[in-house]
Amino acid sequence: MQRLWFTQARLNGGWAKDVRLTLAGGLIESVETGVAPGAGDERHGIAIPGLCNVHSHGFQRGMAGLSERRGRPDDDFWSWREVMYRFLGRMTPDDIAAITALAYAEMLESGYTRVGEFHYLHNDIGGGRYADPAETAGSIVAASEETGIGLTLLPVFYAHADFGGTPPAPGQRRFISDIDGFARLMEASRAKLRKGDVIGIAPHSLRAVTAEELAAILPLAEGGPIHIHAAEQTKEVDACRAWSGARPVEWLLENAPVDERWCLIHATHIDDVEVMGLAASGAVAGLCPVTEANLGDGVFPAEAYLRLEGRIGTGTDSNILVDAASELRMIEYSQRLHHRRRNILGCEETASVGERLFGGAQAGGAQALGVKSGLAAGMPADIIALDACHPALAARKSDMILDSWIFAGGAGCVDSVWAGGVRQVEGGRHVARGAITARYAAALERLTA
């Protein structure tokens, strides 16, 4: 049993002072407020709930910064994708584990305590299945075990290069499954999970999955989360309309059982009707604004969507920069740049932009990854301790803390992080960072030689 005492904490019922959290068995056993620290209490500054990272491709952390050179005048997402295909061509399961572990350590250091790994790198270098269909899923589980981050594993079904069942391209050979092979992959992946892990499925996109395949694989989720890329690029929207007469999100809302179990990743290019339909569905929009900015994707209509009480989560996607506060900040800043106004995502009920973003991402992220979240008795002991002595947080109280962390502080404000009741970050640094960084560097030396 652990007892943690905080000067301030954002509990499920709101902000409170002088808070003791008692942890046992990976859960918060009890919450006391207005109490003095006791002799057995570990004392900290400010407590907020850990966040869920709804969308990660862990292996892409290894190519962060390697695609920032202009290759052609019309450099875009599609040219970046070719760089990514080349990077993964030599990657072994051990490389995947080493690179993903660094991404997960950085997530914990920034305040993410659970990750949704949208895992599509299933096949060997030649495109064949490993003897163990879940060989690389095991690499993901190993990375989460080494770092201590909670895991929602989302094996990806990927069968085609474009809408209408177009045959896959050579660069996609490590992703490809058929329905029977994917069923075996799901069974093998389930067998690798640890206590507390969650599994769902991820039909990659309507580009990669036919309508018939989508219907066939949905039961394999067995009640778990369902994640899908949707409407990230205007080219994708145009191609979907040419194929089906409908936009991607429009097609999903009309032809798939989209509900609270679903998370539509990006959903960047949606019109007013799709905004209303997605918000009404109860699904989560999985926003990855740092990656979306890096790839030149576009701007999600967050103001209109949140006005309709649409649900959001945040993800780090390509892991070009791993920082929970940066993702939240970029959601608001993209709206400011688009609308040329300030404090756009505050509202009458919640004037604090930081609180509205954090609260939305906390609730929506947990929903998207199939878990519970918050600082309350019975909840997972996923806790961020912010450094109350950090200059960005000086003299801050309640919602001002979140505003200042997100817009003026960032990862440097994070002092300690507990995931499942185990302290994985201390003094802003993951407890195993040295060994994780060394393995990562060795893998990159080989892959970039």
From TrEMBL:
The keyword Acyltransferase does not apply. Pfam families: Amidohydro_1, HutF_N. GO terms for molecular function: formimidoylglutamate deiminase activity. Transmembrane segments: none annotated. Its cofactor is Zn(2+). Keywords: Hydrolase, Metal-binding, Zinc. It is an enzyme of class 3 (hydrolase). NCBIfam families: hutF, PRK09229.1-2, PRK09229.1-4, PRK09229.1-5. This is Formimidoylglutamate deiminase. It comes from Sphingosinicella xenopeptidilytica.
